[in-house]
Amino acid sequence: MKSKYYLMGGFWVSLYTFLVITPLIILILGPKSPGRAPLQNLAVGLAFVGLAIMALQFALTARIKSLNEPFGSDIVYYFHRQIGIAAFLMIFAHPILLFFFYPGYISYLNIFTAPLRAKAGVLALLLLIGVVGLSEYRSKLKIPYWFWKLWHGIVLTLTVGLAILHIYLNGNYVNLPWKEQLWISYLVIWVILLVYTRIIYPIQLIRHPFHVVEVKPERANCTTLHMQPEKGRGFNFHPGQFAWITTWRTPFSDTEHPFSLASSAEHPEQIEMTIKALGKFTSTVKEIQPGQKVYVDGAYGSFSCDRYPEAKALILIAGGIGITPLMSTLRTLADRKDGRPLMLFYANRDWETVTFREEFDQLQKRLNLKVIHILEKPPVGWRGETGFLTAEILNRHLDRGWKELNPQIFVCGPKPMMDVVEKQLTQIGFSQSKVHSERFAL
Predict the structure, then answer these.
(1) Claim to verify: residue 71 and residue 197 sit in the same structural domain
(2) pTM, entire model
(3) What pLDDT, in 10s, does the model give residues 170-188?
(4) From its phi and psi, is residue 225 left (phi > 0), alpha (psi between -120 and 50) or beta?
């Protein structure tokens, strides 16, 4: 399985790199403009690479399953953000270099007197500054995600379109048929990605809706949604993966929310999501009624034991609602009659907030599983672990035998907890390459 992911990952990295650097061919091949200095070529080259990256940003967020599978959605989204910043800096360097070495270009900033090609470039740059600025400060400005996502796509579309118009009107980079065809190809790829993400994919989701079978209250102010596809068997998934759900509206509304799948991967005919009331949307989940139509887009993510079938043992570490992907893991392994040693550390505030508490007893009968509860505020007479999950607690239960098994370790919970636990695991002798984390903040 690892070789499959390596091949897929290598293919996508190679294709992405090729598409990003191909515009540089325009500068390297073909007739050169007379009198063009090397620094001017550098400025243009940076802009070309930055523009190619911006155009490909649609591909990174298109939820192409074969693209997400080898890396994981969190890595793809993280890369989308970081490469977007890099592209912005490259594009921003384009006018700065030109202004510094060729001061006469500064006059092009006057949009009233500048030629149309300069107006298109200046407007594209201003829109790009707005896109990046709002992306970085959306949370601080308290802009709703759906509103930001909608205008993020619209403004980025206008930015790329104006940038390509700027290139076309300059003429130097479309003065040969193959150069013109190259930029047309990029424009076609960009339009296809845009149409796919905004029109075709939402239509596909609408054609395959789910309906809610049961709405079940859980401990710790959580609610489990049991859902079945209205057509077919839904979708196959690996334990630990997540999906996007849209309720009360259609996928065209951009109001989907990502949640881990909590059910067994051996039963894709009915999927479950357990959602904790932590915000505006999650607080309304309990109001969903059986029979209601919902749209589920999945499955995504690389946080799965199925990626490591050679593992001789598994250690699962959860905090609060971070238990959901690990419950999918345990339920799946139980249905598969998996006999490997399993250890679950589950940290909670108190005994009454331990979600799925009663089910752990049944799972320990079906699996070679030991569950260690850690409570911040234990009840009177509690004999288990207390406080926060520490290296001492981990060491107390993970003896030398566990370390010799070289287990794969899966951690999911609040970010501060995961940051601490990841360091603690390496401190007590576990390889960092064996530790896998699921972070809910895409």
Answers:
(1) yes
(2) 0.85
(3) 877 777 777 778 778 877 8
(4) beta
